[in-house]
């Protein structure tokens, strides 16, 4: 269980009169000293479950779901995150903090209230044992089913890099999803640092976080990291425990780090990784906690060794690295010319840094989205009612959702038609009269075939590169507000065409900022982040971190931002 610490720096949200009314209603008389003590404790409890209003002064970008301040009072040997703040996607169990999964409370419990977990997920326990201060849960998209940041029941989450839209409206651009609040809150801290470094005026974007724990079933760590201009890693499947986190399908469930630098991403992965004894997604390949690679130390040593050899320079940092540029990654129908050009040019930087850069073709990559859908869609419907899927897994405690009905449809159709689509298509594809077990077997065989295709390419290259997203972040337009079902879905179509396939194959994949692009709307001053995706061998995260750090030896993308 988490140990709650009192925070005297935050303003009080409950008055002494309110506390006295509470005790009077219970016909209790307290001594003055006792009253003062219990009032202090009540204020601490109130702050621990402070649900900030979207767009309020304390939550201007809408990224916070519930704010708190939790720090372990125990002393641990491992204090890797001492002094750092961490938030978690609001589909991860945190004891005492309401769980929303981005949706209405009526969808999660029969009494119409958000469930309050009694336990911490292992990943929460691990960050607390590493000395971090857990500062709250971050908004996620409705049922974790959107690549953008417009569908949460609490409201949209806005991108901190460009606070004004084409008509001067505040906070108009998306920061990606479904770990939308995670991307936005980490980006807040990054934007503040970059603005201060460049001497640019500070803007009101609220409080952020140093790290975030995201979730990824089709790109939901990598897409918000890309749109928000930070670093996001979907680790190898089974490396980080998914126990105590709302599932969509065990085959594609991943939890991973989101941070403001390559090294911080490696650092948080060191904290999160390793067997937990409960998660059936883990295999004999998963390292025991005592055997987890210290990814940040491995990265530090690689850089130190290259520095000692005189090769960690702007012309030789990538010496010896073999980089495969995945041809089909640039053949996504929705990719913009600017994103295509910026990401292609970024790949060539590895060559200027002494690396080997070659184009590689994996034709089956184009089938990845279809394989991802066929292998998982029929079972996703189980997650909506907290049922154990056909694959071995566990349901979440304290979650008691009603069976979807007309009221569920009306609400969900308004907020996120993608969930309704998954419900209908899942119900259809799970009909054994139409789709017998052989259909599922065939889909799984294609999963292994696709994995083998990437494995073959990765036997020749250290990493593969694709664009992370087809465009820069977009804003909600007239189609979203008045275009019905397809208007809601239009902006998100094609966003995960380079990400979802690595969920089913289990390969680690990380997005990182590499440049800047113009918003699609005319007359907007400023630019938004562009990212590429680095894909590595299964359990080969260290190679990916080295490749990312080598690329940045030629300069950070942040250095090019003009405000």
UniProtKB/TrEMBL annotation:
Superkingdom classification of source: Eukaryota
Upper taxonomic lineage: Eukaryota, Fungi, Dikarya, Ascomycota, Pezizomycotina
Residue intervals of the Amidase domain: 76-191, 207-542
Molecular function GO terms recorded: catalytic activity
The name this protein goes by in its record: Amidase domain-containing protein
Gene3D superfamilies, A to Z: Amidase signature (AS) domain
InterPro entries in the record: Amidase, Amidase_dom, AS_sf
């Amino acid at each position: 269980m988490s140990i709650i610490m009192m925070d005297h720096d935050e303003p009080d949200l409950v008055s002494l009169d309110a506390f006295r009314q509470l005790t009077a209603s219970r016909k209790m008389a307290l001594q003055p000293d006792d009253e003062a003590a219990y009032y202090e404790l009540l204020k601490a409890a109130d702050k621990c479950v402070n649900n900030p209003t979207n767009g309020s002064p304390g939550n201007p970008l809408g990224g916070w779901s519930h704010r708190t301040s939790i720090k372990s009072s125990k002393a641990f040997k491992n204090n890797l995150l001492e002094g750092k703040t961490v938030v978690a996607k609001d589909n991860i169990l945190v004891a005492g903090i309401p769980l929303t999964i981005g949706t209405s409370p009526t969808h999660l419990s029969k009494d119409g209230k958000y469930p309050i977990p009694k336990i911490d997920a292992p990943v929460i326990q691990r960050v607390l044992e590493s000395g971090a201060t857990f500062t709250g849960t971050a908004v996620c998209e409705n049922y974790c089913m959107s690549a953008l940041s417009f569908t949460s029941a609490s409201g949209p989450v806005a991108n901190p890099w460009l606070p004004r839209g084409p008509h001067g409206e505040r906070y108009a651009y998306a920061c990606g999803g479904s770990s939308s609040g995670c991307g936005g809150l980490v980006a807040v801290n990054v934007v503040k640092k970059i603005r201060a470094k460049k001497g640019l005026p500070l803007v009101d974007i609220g409080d952020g976080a140093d790290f975030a724990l995201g979730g990824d079933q089709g790109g939901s760590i990598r897409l918000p990291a890309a749109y928000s201009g930070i670093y996001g890693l979907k680790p190898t499947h089974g490396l980080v425990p998914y126990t105590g986190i709302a599932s969509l399908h065990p085959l594609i469930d991943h939890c991973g780090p989101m941070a403001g630098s390559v090294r911080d991403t490696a650092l948080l992965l060191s904290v999160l990784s390793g067997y937990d004894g409960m998660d059936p997604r883990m295999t004999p390949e998963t390292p025991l906690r005592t055997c987890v690679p210290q990814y940040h130390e491995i990265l530090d040593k690689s850089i130190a060794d290259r520095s000692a050899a005189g090769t960690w320079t702007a012309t030789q940092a990538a010496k010896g690295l073999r980089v495969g540029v995945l041809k089909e990654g640039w053949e996504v129908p929705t990719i913009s010319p600017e994103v295509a050009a910026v990401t292609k040019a970024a790949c060539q930087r590895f060559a200027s840094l002494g690396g080997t850069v070659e184009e590689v073709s994996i034709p089956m990559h184009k089938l990845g989205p279809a394989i991802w859908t066929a292998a998982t869609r029929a079972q996703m419907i189980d997650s909506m009612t907290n049922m154990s899927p056909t694959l071995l897994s566990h349901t979440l405690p304290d979650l008691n959702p009603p069976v979807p009905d007309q009221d569920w449809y009306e609400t969900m159709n308004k907020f996120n038609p993608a969930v309704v689509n998954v419900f209908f298509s899942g119900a259809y594809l799970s009909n054994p009269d139409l789709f017998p077990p052989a259909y599922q077997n065939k889909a799984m065989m294609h999963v292994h075939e696709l994995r083998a295709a990437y494995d073959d390419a990765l036997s020749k290259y250290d990493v593969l590169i694709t664009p992370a997203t087809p465009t820069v972040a977009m804003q909600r337009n007239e189609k979203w507000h008045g275009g019905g079902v397809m208007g809601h879905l239009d902006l998100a179509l094609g966003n995960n065409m380079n990400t979802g396939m690595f969920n089913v194959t289990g390969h680690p994949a990380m997005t990182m900022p590499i440049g800047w692009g113009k918003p699609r709307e005319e007359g907007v001053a400023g630019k938004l982040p562009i990212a590429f995706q680095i894909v590595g061998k299964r359990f080969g995260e260290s190679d990916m971190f080295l490749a990312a750090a080598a690329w940045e030896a030629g300069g950070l993308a942040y250095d090019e931002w003009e405000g």
